Amino acid sequence: MEARGTAGPLAGDGGTASAPTPSDVDLLHAHVAGDRDAFAELFHRHRDRLWAVALRTLGDREEAADALQDALLSAHRAADRFRGDSAVTTWLHRIVVNACLDRIRRRQAHPTVPLPDGVRDAEGGTGAVEPAAPAPDHDTALVVRQALATLPAEQRAALVLVDVQGYPVAEVARILGVAEGTVKSRCARGRARLATVLGHLRPGPGTGSAPAGDPVRAGGNVPTVTRGNPEAPGGVRSGSGRSRRDTNQEDS
Fold first, then answer.
1. Alpha-carbon separation of residue 205 from 87, 195, 202, 208, 209 (angstroms)
2. Which parts of the sequence are annotated with region: Disordered (predicted)?
3. What is the pTM of this model?
4. SS3 string of the chain?
5. Is there a contact between 64 and 55 (Cβ–Cβ < 8 Å)?
6. What element of type H or E holds 245?
7. pLDDT attached to residue 84
8. What's the start-to-end Cα distance of the chain, in Å?
């Protein structure tokens, strides 16, 4: 009688069984358990999308890099408080957006004269390699970014996530920690303000027009980095990523 042995590799795989790719949740749990490399792998997996959100929200590369670093440090320290009520990416995005909004508020309270976008002081440069940036700006995209910078912080964050990055309203609501109706209201108010500033960018009759009421896309040439995550995560609850705003307060 043939002896019954342990299951071996499946036929046709060359005798090599590849390890499954760990999920985001697996990596986060491994980090909490003491794996020194798990959080770095999680960050590198999502760095481009997080960087794009930070850059487009703040409009300044140095500020965006600092905000992203602050956010990742917060996420690193608060990983044990992640309860799995949402996708890890939603949790990370929320922490990044909050870090950006904090910087916007501090900048408004203590205004300075920033260097042009992408320019760093020769002695103050970090020399670190930045995450992959969105596609190079065109003149029109620069105008749109400057117009976005004039919006209130909450409206800007909502428009960047919905109109520029292409995230669904439901996911943006989870990222920002507000109701879907609040996201729609912020986007509508922001678009109305941008329509006044960017009206001259709308194409004329017969040249092909952007979707009605969408001055961000009408501005054109604003490249998107992602169309969003395929998951449909639930609400985000994180100590470091907790919303710092009254979710029922409308923008002025």
1. 43, 17, 9, 7, 8
2. 1-22, 200-252
3. 0.63
4. CCCCCCCCCCCCCCCCCCCCCCCHHHHHHHHHCCCCCHHHHHHHHHHHHHHHHHHHHHCCHHHHHHHHHHHHHHHHHHHHHCCCCCCHHHHHHHHHHHHHHHHHHHHHHCCCCCCCCCCCCCCCCCCCCCCCCCCCCCHHHHHHHHHHCCCCHHHHHHHHHHHHCCCCHHHHHHHHCCCHHHHHHHHHHHHHHHHHHHHHHCCCCCCCCCCCCCHHHHCCCCCCCCCCCCCCCCCCCCCCCCCCCCCCCCCC
5. yes
6. none
7. 86
8. 81
- The phi, psi pair for 184, rounded to 5°, reads -60, -40
- Averages of pLDDT over runs of 10 residues in the chain (252 residues) are 46 59 94 95 95 93 95 95 91 96 84 50 43 54 80 92 93 95 95 84 53 46 37 40 41 44
Q: Provide the token pair at 98.
A: 């909050």
Placement of tokens 């209201």 in the chain: 185
* 8, amino acid identity: G
d(CA 163, CA 213): 11
Two structure tokens written together for 184: 């729609």
Residue 190: alpha-carbon gap to chain centroid? 18
Both tokens assigned to 133: 């940036």
pLDDT at 33: 95
CA atoms within a 13 Å half-sphere pointing along the CA-CB vector of 94: 29
| DSSP 8-state assignment for residue 163 | I
Token digits for 203?
């194409």
